[in-house]
């Protein structure tokens, strides 16, 4: 079942949480709502589920407006961040809950519970109580329970947030496989970029109650639509420039800024792995001093300070073997060429948070 | 399942005891450990003084009075004690006390549950004011509460003539006593449930809702089973107060022997008539009620603590 959200707005006690949000999730897709905490992603999920009422806008399930329907009538499966298992019920009773409240026959319930526990690989755990399970097992029970009434929409709120790193990784892969089997339209909320990229078909990036960009993981990473997306997805270096004749000037380098007014400011963003380090100067390169070398396993992070430009800090990430070939030593001067840059006109008020974040 | 568990437990105990035994045998570790303890604890004098103070205080204000009640009640022997209780007026007082508790405790359990549900499950304006209002009976002298009821429902009160026309008696009758008790005891259940339900959060109820449960099903299958021990705890405290309330009930009762006397009022009347032995005999009933309440309260606390321990034990076991 597809989900359409149109012009949704919501405020809590006068603080806007969602501002004019529009989103389409086609049938069978697994979409991640990704953003920092407080960006409105959980509220959006809860409105889709019917657990919150929007101030304006509409929500459609399969093209049908559902605003008038309560959460009870929407038949969506929801997996909550802290599992929300019924602690006084066994695992089997938890999973059977949706069928029990619909007064389904006992035999049907038993069969469905067995099937679902098999699906989440907890066949032998039906008689346990939630407190007798590990975090990962509880989350799987929560998922089985959410699927019990065969919902055509599955919503997951930070499903792996409360688990430790190793279990989280396992569950991610497992969730992806499960989705490939069931093809139920799914939306899951996360603040973890890696998680969103690994599990989802498409990523919806949210910031301050707005959707910044929607796209496949490769799209949003390679072609970020805004400075926020650029900053949020991984480390980034920022150079501040001034626009003259449609080009931003940073030191003696020039970058095209389509559509920017003369004398306005523009920011040039470069990812650390898109910086190359050379021993000799080349056209368009910046000279910098090596400050520190941080081994990261397969790569080396090189922390540098620019010569000129007020000695701004720059981070580069290079392959281990390339780093070994260069034999870098802290204190020496090298030349940086920027393999790929993205230029955005600077918006008022944004520049401060960028510089403050130290990226 | 029990097999590995049983074999695992003694092993755990052995493991826990072994280091203690070792340190007792070696004279080197013992003094260094006590020196360590001294560095982070108060000197023994302070500890003893504080403990003695607490014990003295308890003895002076709880143990001695309690002993006096028991001793005085039984001074004339069990037969006299029984005679005081079997007196028709005493029996009437006991019956009335039970009746008033039977009216006010269930109503306040209902009110407490509704108030706690509304306060912890919904967002609305004026909630803080509502929470403060629930505490009102704690802050108002019970005598004032009783007087308000007289002013409202008495012969010259606001609703007095309306009630009189219909031949209804509230003040100096059972309804007045029940209303006074209701007012004085209504915070107990709500006060017990609100923090508990706040700590539990609303996720389980929301989960039940999206799975298609109706409000009634959520209450019966999710909320009530979750809060039952807290609710029971609140009911016990509420009951103790309902049976022991004196001030408010004293104002509205009229002290009509055999008709509007509750146990505490009856004790007071007997005492003012110099029937000390009988007064203490009836008072010993309230003392027993206090003991029962205390034991039930302690039992519930132990039960909750062991449930928590069980959770911790089992969760660590499932991780292994």
At CATH level 2, the architecture of the largest domain in chain B is Orthogonal Bundle
Based on helices, strands and strand pairing, what is the structural class of chain B?
mainly alpha
DSSP helix fraction of chain A: 25-40%
Name the helix and strand elements of chain B from N-terminus to C-terminus, one letter apiece. HHHHHHHHHHHHHHHH
Oligomeric state of shown chains:
heterodimer
* Uncertain stretches of chain B: 1-28
Number of domains of chain B: 3
Name the chain pair with the biggest interface and residue counts per chain: A-B, 34 and 23 residues
Give an account of the 3D structure:
The complex is a heterodimer of chains A (359) and B (320). Chain A is of the alpha+beta class and 359 residues long. Chain A has helices spanning 41-49, 71-74, 91-100, 106-119, 135-147, 165-182, 193-199, 217-222, 227-232, 320-326, 350-357, and strands spanning 3-12, 15-25, 30-34, 56-61, 64-65, 77-79, 153-157, 185-190, 202-207, 210-215, 237-244, 247-250, 253-256, 265-270, 275-278, 286-295, 299-306, 313-319, 333-338, 342-345. In chain A, the strands form four sheets. Chain A has a six-stranded mixed sheet with strand order 6-7-8-3-9-10, with helices on both faces. Chain B has 320 residues and is an all-alpha fold. Chain B has helices spanning 2-25, 29-40, 44-73, 77-86, 88-121, 127-134, 136-139, 142-153, 160-165, 174-185, 187-200, 203-210, 215-244, 247-253, 263-272, 276-319. The radius of gyration of chain B is 27 Å and the shape is globular. The model of chain B is unreliable at 1-28 (pLDDT under 50).
